[in-house]
Amino acid sequence: MLEIRDLAKSFGSFAALGPMSFTLDREHVLTVIGPSGCGKSTLLRLVAGLETATRGDIRLDGTPVDGPRSEIGVAFQDPRLMPWLDVRRNVGLGLWRWPAAERAAAVDAALAKVSLTGFADALPKQLSGGMAQRVGLARALVGRPRLLLLDEPFAALDPLTRMRMQDHLLDIVGGEVPNVLLITHDIEEAIVLSDRIIVLDGPPARIRRDVVVDLPKPRKRTSAAFQEIKEFLLGELFPADGRLAA
Amino acid sequence: MTDIVTDAGASLAAGRGRGGFRLRLPRGVLPHGWRALALPLAVLAAWQAVGALGWTDATLLPTPLAVLGELVRLATSGELLSNLAVSFRRVMLGFAAGTLVATALGALTGYSLQWRAYLDPSVHALRTIPGLAWIPMFILWLGIDEGSKIALIALANFFPTYLNFMSGIARVDRKLIEVGRVNGLAGARLVGTILLPYSLPFLFVGLRQSMGVAWLVVVGAELMGASSGIGYMLMDGEMTGRPHLVMACMIVFALSGKSTDMILAAISRRVLRWQDTVEKD
User: Fold this and answer.
1) Contact residues, chain A, for B175 at CB < 8 Å
2) Which of A6, A49, B155, B257 could crosslink A67 through cysteines, CB 3.0-4.6 Å?
3) DSSP A129-190
4) HEC states along B53-103?
């Protein structure tokens, strides 16, 4: 269970986020959506332990998050692979405490999940953008995290690859990862994947709406219910009073 | 706008036509790889011809064949090898010492802003002293023998490696450091896994510059007083009026510098084969 309580973050005199509170427990995928620059990435960086909160606290299963934790896997907007390490070593980067045999097995399993079994010995320069992003996803998953953080993981991909990755993400993540926190500005991506969507505005980032998406998965982008939620979220992101939500 | 484009296109086409002025060599006379040799070979041939005809004074400008003959004589007598070994040893010891100190200090100042604030300005201040200006002090402190020569080479070697390595480490991508942090890397493990590999390309640039400087400085060190080494032979050639010996030594220096650089380049290509560059090996 991820608990966020009265969380606030300022950079100098600039208030970037909060205060905000929410809890992620039963829902598998919680998506935080908001216009770019609203502070949603700051939220992810706080939960990842890459930034320290100015106020409030973040707890994962009751333990405060005050730095990077092995129970939290992170996939960034760009793959961020080490160009000097082959795919196998990139994926196993965080498993240096593990015995070699277990590490190899975990890396192989993670690569199989993202359909890159044959590419373990490839260098990042030999991969396409979509493949590199899948390596980044495998790296985030390989340590069997309790919580997976995804920071606009498909934003840099071409539309076709992006759609395919969105459709496959839930199969890849599977039931092994109890909770996924996805940050995105892509409304369709949010509806395809999420059990619950939090709409932010800002800065400072504040919760504008908290919506439960109760549609069966896999979801069809063309269904009437899908379109209805999309209209609603668009209205929330771009309110009719003409003011930009951010 | 379209008019201008059309006009420019037309005038370009005219320039390319029969009437236009052309500065173009005929194609296909020499295979591509040999074209670089055309100019030097032509100069050498002309030079040899001029010398053979007796138009130049052989005590001032020996012919290419005389220089080549001197090289062969030095090589067969063993003189070349023994002196080259001495120079090579000086270069390598100086290079090793300079590199060792430069990488240690560069890693420290590149990684830590604190250490950089304390050390880096002093290093830059020292760098403004020309390397060869140290010669008298080094002789005074370390004597006329090997010590002062190796120290001079080490000192000159230090700066390129230090500066490049430091900036490499200082410029490490923050995003990759974050990946290291969320994957539990810290301290020495973070340095070894991310900082060092990231700065290796910079280090190799520094090493190759340093190696070039080492061959530059060994000449100075050997000219100032030595009883062996290629620089000594060069000095000897000047004192005894043997320009063919001087020129032979110049060629030996050129070949030595080029070969050590090629070795470093080959190592660097191998170590940095992960780099995504257009350069192919």
Assistant:
1) 76, 78, 80
2) A49
3) HHHHHHHHHHHHHTT--SEEEEESTTTTS-HHHHHHHHHHHHHHHTTTSSEEEEEES-HHHH
4) CCCCCCCCCCCHHHHHHHHHHHHHHCHHHHHHHHHHHHHHHHHHHHHHHHH
Dihedral angle of Cα A17, A20, A21, A22, to the nearest 10 degrees:
-70
Contacts with A50 from chain B: Cβ below 8 Å: 178, 181-182
- Alpha-carbon distance of B60 to B102, in angstroms, equals 43
Give the single-character DSSP code of A199.
E
Tell me the ipTM for this assembly: 0.89
- Give the tens place of pLDDT for each residue, B109-133: 988 889 999 999 999 999 999 888 8
Tokens encoding A104:
């190899």
Q: Verify cis geometry, omega within 30 degrees of 0, for the bond prior to B201.
A: no
pLDDT, tens only, B28-72: 777 777 888 889 899 999 999 998 888 888 788 899 999 999 999
Query: Which residues, in sequence order, are bridge partners of residue A196?
Result: A30, A212
The Cα B87–Cα B79 span in angstroms is 12
B213 contact partners, CB below 8 Å, separation of at least 6: B131, B156, B157, B159, B160
Please identify which residue in the block is written with the tokens 């427990």: A25
A60 DSSP β-pair partners: A2, A63
Q: Which of B50, B79, B115, B99 has the alpha carbon at shortest distance from B230?
A: B79
Find where tokens 């640039």 sit: B205
The residue length of chain B stands at 281
Residue of A78, A80, A84 to mutate, testing the B interface (most B Cβ within 10 Å of its Cβ): A84
Option in B181, B184, B185 nearest A50 (CB): B181
B180/A80 Cβ within 8 A = no
